[in-house]
Specification:
The complex is a heterotrimer.
Chain A: H1 10-35, H2 38-44, E1 51-53, E2 69-77, E3 88-93, E4 97-102, E5 108-113, E6 117-123, E7 133-135, E8 140-144, E9 151-158, H3 184-216, H4 223-240, H5 245-273, H6 278-300, E10 313-317, E11 320-323, H7 324-346, H8 348-358, H9 360-365, H10 370-392, H11 402-417, H12 422-438, H13 450-464
Parallel strand pairs in A: 2-9
Antiparallel strand pairs in A: 1-4, 2-5, 3-4, 3-6, 6-8, 7-9, 10-11
Helix pairs in contact in A: 3-7, 3-8, 3-10, 3-11, 3-12, 4-5, 4-6, 4-10, 4-11, 5-10, 7-8, 8-10, 11-12, 11-13, 12-13
Chain B: H1 5-11, H2 16-35, H3 42-59, H4 64-86, H5 91-110, H6 115-118, H7 129-133, E1 142-144, E2 147-149, H8 151-176, H9 178-188, H10 190-195, H11 200-223, H12 235-248, H13 254-279, H14 287-308
Antiparallel strand pairs in B: 1-2
Helix pairs in contact in B: 1-13, 2-8, 2-11, 2-12, 2-13, 3-4, 3-5, 3-11, 4-11, 8-9, 12-13, 12-14, 13-14
Chain C: H1 2-5, E1 25-36, E2 39-50, E3 54-58, H2 65-72, E4 80-85, E5 88-89, H3 95-100, E6 103-105, H4 118-125, H5 134-137, H6 140-160, H7 176-188, E7 194-198, H8 206-221, E8 225-229, H9 233-239, E9 242-247, E10 250-255, H10 257-262, H11 264-271, H12 282-292, H13 295-319
Parallel strand pairs in C: 3-8, 3-9, 6-7, 7-8
Antiparallel strand pairs in C: 1-2, 1-4, 4-5, 9-10
Helix pairs in contact in C: 4-7, 12-13
Classes of the chains: A alpha+beta, B mainly alpha, C alpha/beta.
C-alpha cells in the first residue's frame, strides 16, 4: 500500500536541517571554546593522568596550543593485564621536545605532540612495580604523523625479558612521510587510502546484510557477530596456531559460511516456518547478537587480540606508505567483490537471488526454490562477513566486540546505498570508509567522533533520499 | 556458603537501576508496545535527559526544578530531531536511525574537547545536591539485615517509586483515553488511521516525545543516587530495556515496571549464584569470565521471549501485537 | 431492485464523453498525472464526480484505479494536477486532512485494526473528539460526554451493519466480509460527504453481498456521494448511477451503466470478446477467468482468494 511518504513539505526538511546544524554548531562552539584550555583542563582533572610538561620552545608564539597529534601510553602487567599507575615515562623528540608524564589509575597517559616526527619513549624502570621488567623495546621509537592521535606506546611488564609483541594501535594507519608541516597531499592521500581500504572491508560485510535483507526482509542486527567470528577464526588459526595467513583467511571464509548456514538452519529457518513477523525477528537478532558477543567475550576474554603481521612499509605511492596487508586485503576484497558481482549477474543462483529480492512470492511462483536461495544467501553472507573479519584482523586488533562496533557502519553503508541493493552496499561502504577517515583530517572534527560523522551522514541521506543513493524509490512504502 | 546474595538480590526491587529502568521501559512501551514505533535508541533518550540534568545541575549550578525542565526539553528536542526525518518512513528506518543517534550521543559526550561540560569518559558526579537538600527524613539507618539504607538512599527510593507510579497512572490514563485509541490504532495500521482523519505523523511524534521524556527522567532517577557514566547508555541498555518490556508485556502499563523488577532481581540472583559456585570451586570459571554470563543470559532470554512468549509472562496471547 | 433505486435524473451536461462536465459535481479533477518509473500509472485529463450519486470506477487490472484513489485521497502525490472537493482544492493536502474535509475512503485490502475492539474501531472513525488531544485526554471529564455520543452513534451504525453483537470482540475475530462492513461503517462515523470505496466486494462471501449493496444504496439515500472501484460488473450495473472507465491510466469512457456496458471502447478495453458473458458474482468471475485464461482477471482473483485464505488462517489461529 502506498503511504503518504512523499507528502512531507520541504519546509519540514529544512527545519530538520536547521535543527541539526544548530546542534552541530553548538557542539563545534563547545569544542573550539575549550580547545584553548584543553591542556590546563586535562591536568586539572583528578582522575586523568597528570601531564607534567617541560615547556616546549615558545608555546605562545605558535598560536593555538592544541596538539594535532598525541602519543598514547598504556602500561600494563602482562600476566593479568592489570594497569600500572604512577609509572614515569619520558618522551623526547625533535626540536628539543621533552616531556615527562606519569600514568594514571588506568595505567594510561597521553602526550600531546605539536610536531610530527620520530619520538623516543622511555619508561623509567625505577617507577614500575618491583620484580617486573619491561617486555619489548625500551626506550622505543614512535613515529608520529600528521593528525595521528593517540599513537600507541603500550608497555607490558613481565618477569622475564621474553619478547612479547607490543600491540599496534587500534587505528594504525598507513603513515605519511615525516616532516614538520604536512602538506595537503600528505594529510589527505593517506586518509583516502585508509578510507578506501576500510570501506572495502565494510563492503564485504555489508553485502551480506543487504542480501539477507533483500531476500528475507530481516535487518540482521547479529551480522556484526559474523564479522567478529571471522576475525576470531583468523586469530586462532594464524595468531594462536601460527598457521600461514592465507590459511587463517581461508578458514575464516569457510567457517564464516558454515556459521551462517548453521544460523539459518538452526534459528532463522524455523522462525520463518513459524511465520514470525519481521519486527520480532529483528528483536531476535538483537538477542542473538548480545548472546554471541558475550559468548565471544566469555571464550576470548575482553582484550584486544593481535594477529602478528609485518607492519613495515611495503609499498610507497607518493605520500602514501602502505603495509603488506594494506595492499593485499583490498586486492582480496576487490577480487571477491568482483566474483560476487559476477555471481549475481551471470549465474543462475545469482539471478534467482535477485528475483527473490525483487518479489519473493512471484519468484516462488515461477518455480524458484526460495528457501534454497535464502540458505545460499546466508552461507554467502556469513562467508563474506567472516572474510571481512579476518582481514580486519590484519588491519587492527580484533576483539569480542569488533563486529558490534562496525555494525552501525555496516547499516549506515547499506542504508546509504539503498536497502537490498548489493551494489549500493558497496558504494555506501566506500563512502562511509572515506568519510570516517577524511572527516577527521585537519581537526575538522575530533578523531573520536569519526564514527559520528558517518552515522550523521546516514541520517541526513535518509532525510533527502530515503531509498538510498542507488535504491529504487518505489521500494519504500 | 554465603547466601546473603539472596536478600541483596531482592534489594534490587528498590535499587536506583530498577526504578530508572522501570521508567525508561515504560517510555519504551509507549513507543514500541502502544504505538508500534521501533525505537532502538531509548538509551540515547536516557543519555540526553541524564546529561541535560547533570550538566545543568553540576556544571551550571541550576536549581533542581530548572534542571528537570532542561531534562524534558533535551528529550523533546532529541525526539524532534529523530522523529521529523524518520517517522514518515518505514518502521525499520526508525530503528536504524535511533540506534545510530544514540551512539552519536554517547560518542559525542565522550569527546575530550567538551569534557569540561560532559566529564568525558568519566561522566558526571554529584547531581544529587539539591535533591538531598530537600530530604525531610532524619539521618538514621533504615531497613534490616543486609538491606540497610541511609536517609538519602531511602529518600531517592521513595521519590523514585513515586515518580514511577505517577508516570504509570499518567500512561494508563492516556491509553484509556481517545488519544490512546489513536495511538493503538496507529500500531495496528497507520494508513487506516490516516484515512480516518488523524494526523498520524504528529501522533507518532507525540508518542516519541512522551516515551523519550520518560526515558530521560528515568536516567535522572538513576544518576541522583549514583553517577552519570556515558558507557551505561550504549546499545546494550536499549536491548536490556527491550528485554524488560517484553518480559512484562509490551502492551501493558504495569508490564515494563514489573519487568524491570524481575529483570534486575533475576540478574542479581544469577550473578550471586555464579559467584557462589565459582568461589566454592563448583564451576571452573575465572572471575573475568563471570562478567559476560549475565549478558549471554539476557540475550538468550530476549530471543526466547520474542519467539515463545511475545505477549510477556503476564500478557494474554492475543495481545501480542506482533505475533502475526 | 435496480429499477426502484436507480436515479432517472440527468447527471451530465451534454454528450457523455470522457471528462464530460456534470450538472452538480462534488469532485473535480484536472490534469492528474502520476508516473512510476516512466510508466504513466494515472493520466487523467479531466473528470467530474456527480453529487449525491453512486459512481463506479471500473477498468482492467493495472488501469490505475487504485492509484487514482490514492492520489485523490492524499495517500500518494501526483507529478502534476489539481482537484477540488466542493470547489476547495485538495491538491497537496495530506491524507488526514482530506478525510476531515469529508472525503473518506476504504481500502482494497481491509484495514480493520485487529487488536482494537470492533467498538473502538468505530469510535476511532468519529471526528471532533477533543480527547484525542494529548492534554485534554488526561482529564476524563473533558471528553466523557463526547465519548458517550460517539458510542451511541457507533452502536447505532453497528446495529445497522449487524455487527452490534460483536462490539466488544477484537476486530481480528471478524470474517473478511464482516471486516469490509466494519471498515465501511467506521468510515461513516465522521458523517462524510463523499465515500470512496476501493473494491467493497473483494473477498466478501456471496451471502453478505446483498447486504453490502443495500448499505451502499443507503448512503446515497442519506445524501452522501459514493465513488467506488469494482470488478463485479453485476454490482456495477445494479447500483451505479454513473460509470467511469479507466484503461492504462486514462479515462476512456463515461456514462450511464447500461450505455457504457455497450460502448465499444469499453468492451475493447475491459471486457474483451466475452462482453456478453455475465460477469456476475465472484464465482462467475472465476469461471470467466478460467474460460478466458485471462491473465488480468486471474491475478485479481488469486489476490482475493489469498486474502480470504489469510482471513481464515487468522480466524483459525484466533480460535486457539
Amino acid at each position: 500500500m502506498v503511504t503518504a511518504l512523499r507528502s512531507r513539505p520541504r519546509v519540514i526538511r529544512l527545519f530538520v536541517v536547521v535543527l541539526a546544524l544548530m546542534f552541530a554548531a553548538t557542539a563545534f562552539a563547545f569544542s573550539t571554546v575549550d580547545s584553548a584550555s584543553a591542556q590546563s583542563l586535562s591536568s586539572a582533572k583528578s582522575s586523568a593522568p597528570t601531564v607534567d610538561t617541560t615547556p616546549t620552545p615558545a608555546p605562545g608564539s605558535t598560536a593555538p596550543t592544541t596538539a594535532a597529534q598525541s602519543i598514547g601510553i598504556w602500561i600494563r602487567i602482562a600476566a593479568d593485564k592489570s594497569n600500572v599507575p604512577n609509572a614515569k615515562v619520558t618522551v623526547t623528540g625533535p626540536s628539543g621536545f621533552s616531556t615527562t608524564v606519569v600514568s594514571g589509575a588506568d595505567g594510561r597517559a597521553t602526550v600531546p605532540i605539536e610536531k610530527t616526527g620520530t619520538y623516543k619513549v622511555l619508561l623509567d624502570k625505577s617507577t614500575i612495580p618491583a620484580g617486573l621488567s619491561v617486555l619489548g623495546d625500551n626506550p622505543r621509537d614512535v613515529q608520529v604523523d600528521a593528525e595521528n592521535q593517540g599513537v600507541p606506546a603500550y608497555y607490558l611488564l613481565g618477569d622475564g625479558a621474553a619478547g612479547a609483541t607490543p600491540a599496534p594501535g587500534k587505528t594504525s594507519s598507513p603513515s605519511t612521510s615525516s616532516g614538520n608541516t604536512p602538506t595537503f597531499a600528505e594529510v589527505v592521500f593517506p586518509r583516502i587510502a585508509t578510507g578506501l581500504i576500510y570501506g572495502l572491508l565494510i563492503a564485504l560485510a555489508s553485502i551480506g546484510v543487504s542480501l539477507i535483507y533483500g531476500t528475507t526482509g530481516l535487518n540482521n542486527f547479529a551480522h556484526g557477530e559474523l564479522v567478529t567470528f571471522g576475525g576470531l577464526v583468523g586469530y586462532v588459526v594464524s595468531g594462536v596456531m601460527h598457521m600461514p595467513s592465507w590459511l587463517g583467511i581461508l578458514s575464516a571464509l569457510v567457517f564464516g559460511g558454515i556459521f551462517g548456514y548453521l544460523q539459518d538452519l538452526g534459528l532463522w529457518k524455523p522462525l520463518r516456518k513459524r511465520g514470525i513477523g519481521l519486527i520480532p525477528l529483528m528483536i531476535v537478532s538483537i538477542g542473538l547478537s548480545l548472546a554471541l558477543r558475550y559468548i565471544f567475550n566469555f571464550i576470548f576474554g575482553p582484550d584486544l587480540l593481535v594477529t602478528p603481521s609485518d607492519s613495515s612499509s611495503f609499498l610507497t605511492l607518493g605520500p602514501v606508505h602502505l603495509r603488506f596487508w594494506d595492499v593485499v586485503s583490498p586486492i582480496i576484497c576487490i577480487v571477491v567483490l568482483l566474483l560476487v558481482a559476477f555471481a549475481m549477474l551471470r549465474t543462475r543462483i545469482g539471478k534467482a537471488t535477485r528475483a527473490v529480492a525483487d518479489n519473493r512470492s512471484l519468484a516462488a511462483a515461477t518455480g524458484i526454490n526460495v528457501e534454497r536461495v535464502i540458505r545460499i544467501v546466508w552461507v554467502a553472507g556469513g562467508a563474506l562477513a567472516g572474510l571481512s573479519g579476518a582481514l580486519i584482523g590484519y588491519y587492527q586488533p580484533v576483539s569480542w566486540e569488533t563486529g558490534a562496533s562496525i555494525l552501525l557502519l555496516i547499516f549506515a553503508a547499506v542504508t546509504l546505498g539503498g536497502f537490498g541493493s548489493a551494489f549500493g552496499a558497496l558504494v555506501g561502504s566506500l563512502i562511509i570508509g572515506l568519510l570516517i577517515d577524511l572527516s577527521t583530517s585537519y581537526g575538522f572534527i575530533p578523531s573520536n567522533l569519526k564514527l559520528v560523522a558517518a552515522l550523521a551522514v546516514m541520517i541526513v541521506i535518509l532525510l533527502f533520499r530515503p531509498q538510498g543513493i542507488l535504491g529504487r524509490k518505489d521500494r519504500i512504502g | 556458603m554465603d547466601f546473603n546474595f539472596i536478600p541483596l538480590a531482592f534489594g534490587e526491587i528498590v535499587s536506583p537501576l530498577t526504578i530508572g529502568y522501570a521508567l525508561a521501559a515504560l517510555g519504551l512501551a509507549v513507543h514500541f508496545g502502544f504505538t508500534g514505533l521501533l525505537n532502538f535508541g531509548q538509551a540515547g533518550f536516557m543519555a540526553v535527559g541524564g546529561y541535560a540534568f547533570a550538566i545543568t545541575t553540576v556544571k551550571f549550578g541550576w536549581p533542581l526544578g530548572w534542571a528537570l525542565v532542561a531534562t524534558v526539553v533535551g528529550a523533546v528536542l532529541f525526539a524532534l530531531l529523530l522523529g521529523i526525518p524518520t517517522l514518515r518512513l518505514r518502521a525499520d528506518y526508525l530503528s536504524i536511525v535511533t540506534i545510530a543517534a544514540a551512539e552519536i550521543v554517547r560518542y559525542t559526550v565522550k569527546t575530550p574537547s567538551i569534557s569540561q561540560y560532559t566529564g568525558g569518559s568519566d561522566g558526571i558526579n554529584g547531581a544529587s545536591r539539591d535533591f538531598y537538600a530537600m530530604n525531610p527524613l532524619p539521618d538514621i539507618q533504615y531497613g534490616f539485615g543486609v538491606l540497610t539504607y541511609n536517609n538519602n538512599q531511602l529518600w531517592s527510593i521513595l521519590v523514585g517509586w513515586t515518580v514511577v507510579i505517577i508516570a504509570a497512572v499518567l500512561v494508563w490514563q492516556l491509553m484509556r483515553s481517545p488519544w490512546g485509541r489513536v495511538i493503538k490504532g496507529i500500531r495496528e495500521d497507520e494508513d487506516a488511521v490516516r484515512s480516518l482523519g488523524k494526523n498520524v505523523t504528529w501522533y507518532k511524534m507525540q508518542s516519541l516525545i512522551l516515551g523519550g521524556v520518560l526515558g530521560g527522567l528515568g536516567t535522572v532517577l538513576i544518576i541522583i543516587p549514583t553517577s552519570l557514566q556515558p558507557d551505561n547508555y550504549g546499545t546494550q541498555t536499549t536491548f536490556f530495556l527491550y528485554t524488560i518490556v517484553l518480559l512484562g508485556g509490551a502492551t501493558t502499563v504495569l508490564g515494563p515496571i514489573i519487568g524491570s523488577i524481575i529483570f534486575w532481581v533475576v540478574l542479581q540472583l544469577s550473578d550471586g549464584i555464579l559467584t557462589l559456585l565459582v568461589n566454592n570451586h563448583l564451576l571452573p570459571l575465572s572471575s573475568v569470565q563471570q562478567g559476560p554470563i549475565r549478558f549471554i543470559i539476557v540475550g538468550i532470554a530476549l530471543m526466547l521471549l520474542v519467539i515463545f512468549r511475545p505477549q510477556g509472562i503476564f500478557g494474554k496471547k492475543r495481545e501480542a501485537h506482533f505475533s502475526g | 431492485m435496480a429499477d426502484a433505486t436507480k436515479d432517472v435524473t440527468v447527471l451530465q451536461v451534454g454528450e457523455p464523453l470522457p471528462g464530460v462536465p456534470k450538472v452538480d459535481p462534488i469532485l473535480v479533477a484536472h490534469g492528474v498525472r502520476r508516473t512510476f518509473g516512466g510508466v504513466n500509472a494515472v493520466d487523467v485529463e479531466h473528470v467530474e464526480i456527480p453529487r449525491n450519486a453512486i459512481t463506479a470506477l471500473i477498468g482492467p487490472n493495472g488501469a490505475g484505479k487504485t492509484t487514482f484513489f490514492n492520489l485523490l485521497t492524499g495517500f500518494d502525490k501526483p507529478d502534476s494536477g489539481t482537484w477540488s472537493l466542493d470547489g476547495k482544492s485538495l491538491a497537496n493536502v495530506p491524507a488526514y486532512k482530506v478525510a476531515r474535509r469529508g472525503m473518506v475512503r476504504t481500502f482494497q485490502l481491509t484495514k480493520a485494526l485487529s487488536l482494537l475492539s470492533v467498538l473502538e474501531n468505530m469510535r476511532l472513525g468519529a471526528g471532533s473528539q477533543g480527547g484525542e488531544r494529548f492534554l485534554t485526554s488526561l482529564v476524563t471529564r473533558l471528553w466523557r460526554k463526547r465519548e458517550d455520543e460517539i458510542t451511541a452513534q457507533a452502536m447505532e451504525l453497528l446495529a445497522r451493519f449487524k455487527l452490534d453483537t460483536k462490539a466488544d470482540d477484537y476486530a481480528a475475530s471478524l470474517s473478511g466480509g464482516q471486516r469490509k462492513l466494519l471498515e465501511m461503517a467506521r468510515a461513516l462515523m465522521s458523517k462524510p460527504e463523499l465515500v470512496m470505496l476501493d473494491e467493497p466486494m473483494a473477498g466478501v462471501n456471496p451471502a453478505l453481498t446483498q447486504s453490502l449493496l443495500g448499505h451502499i444504496l443507503n448512503l446515497k439515500k442519506e445524501g452522501m456521494t459514493v465513488l467506488f472501484v469494482e470488478h463485479d460488473m453485476h454490482m456495477v450495473q445494479t447500483i451505479a448511477d454513473w460509470v467511469i472507465v479507466m484503461a492504462e491510466g486514462k479515462i476512456v469512457a463515461e456514462g450511464y451503466p447500461d450505455v457504457v456496458m455497450r460502448d465499444q471502447a469499453v468492451i475493447d478495453a475491459y471486457l474483451g470478446a466475452h462482453h456478453d458473458t455475465d460477469l456476475g458474482s465472484l464465482t462467475g468471475q472465476l469461471e470467466v477467468a478460467k474460460d478466458l485464461g485471462d491473465s488480468f482477471l486471474v491475478g485479481e482473483i488469486s489476490d482475493e482468494i489469498r486474502d480470504e485464505k489469510a482471513d481464515h488462517t487468522m480466524e483459525a489461529t484466533d480460535g486457539k
